[in-house]
Amino acid sequence: MEISPLSNALGASVTGVDIGKINQDQFAEIHRAFLDYQLLVFREQQLDAEAQIAFSKRFGPIETRPDRPFTLPGYPEVTILSNRLIDDEPVGVISAGDFWHTDLSFGEIPCRVTFLYALEVAKEGGDTEWSNIYTAYDALSDKMKERIAELSCIHVFDRRRNKRTKVDTQFIDKAEEVYGVTIPDAVHPMVRHHPETGRKSLYISPRFVVGIEGVDDDEAQSLLDELFEHQIRPEFRYRHRWRRGDLLMWDNPCLIHVGHGNIKPPGIRHMHRTMVLGDRPH
Ligand SMILES: O=C(O)CCC(=O)C(=O)O
């Protein structure tokens, strides 16, 4: 197994391994690399839903939500991300992740690791990009670190309550059905400690964070604008051009990401996503 860094910001590619057949030593090496690089790319994998679920489960309990749209029939653990239409009807979520975010931060227990497996990729478009919020935190001034040390942010699922996002075109006629589900807002520390490394990250994102607890809204919004801009500085980022057979896994407590979309017709991008839960942010 060979592990090679993908950028100065984050990420490594792992070759010479079949994810469906890893042994204990290989798992330990992957786990170590995951903590070191935050995002791993496994090329040329051939995974069915069961193999993807089995690998995901090695990192924590699988997340499922009964009302989540577009899960794979028979596998509520797997969500289909796809721009394919059959009889004009989408078969998956067309633009998951169109605003910078960290997965499921609107939950009391957010997602620890996301696994995304490319069954089909388009010739043009469909890149995903990550930004390292460990290094974003480290790069803040001491004064800013002190200012935000004790702050907690309000994370909201419903896009209609976030002035920095808009409802996906795909769900425009079903906004109440998709976003009106009962998911209580979550309050998490702005500076999060990683559950395994203990490192601090700037745990916010424009997709989910709408306010700061106990801070006047004008002041909160201007601080958030400044920090949202800071956390995606180019030097913190890695952008991935997908190949068919890529399995990517990323560490949500220390990364935010965005799906760039813009798939050029008639290109089809078809992915299977699984997520495992982590700790309560602290
Ligand atoms: O499809 C992509 O490029 C990103 C997906 C994403 O952001 C997500 O599933 O959370």
Detailed description of the structure:
- The mean pLDDT is 96.
- This protein has helices at 24-37, 49-57, 133-138, 142-148, 175-179, 217-230, and strands spanning 2-5, 12-15, 39-42, 71-72, 75-82, 85-86, 89-90, 111-120, 128-132, 152-155, 186-189, 191-193, 200-202, 209-212, 237-240, 247-251, 255-259, 270-277.
- The chain is globular and about 50 Å long.
- The chain is an alpha+beta fold.
- The protein has a single domain, classed as Clavaminate synthase-like (Double-stranded beta-helix), CATH 3.60.130.10.
- The strands form five sheets. An eight-stranded mixed β-sheet has the order 1-2-3-16-8-18-5-4, covered by helices on one side.
- 20% of the residues lie in helices and 29% in strands.
- The protein starts with a strand and ends in a 5-residue tail after the last strand.
- 2-oxoglutaric acid (AKG) is lined by residues 81, 96-97, 103, 128, 257, 259, 273.
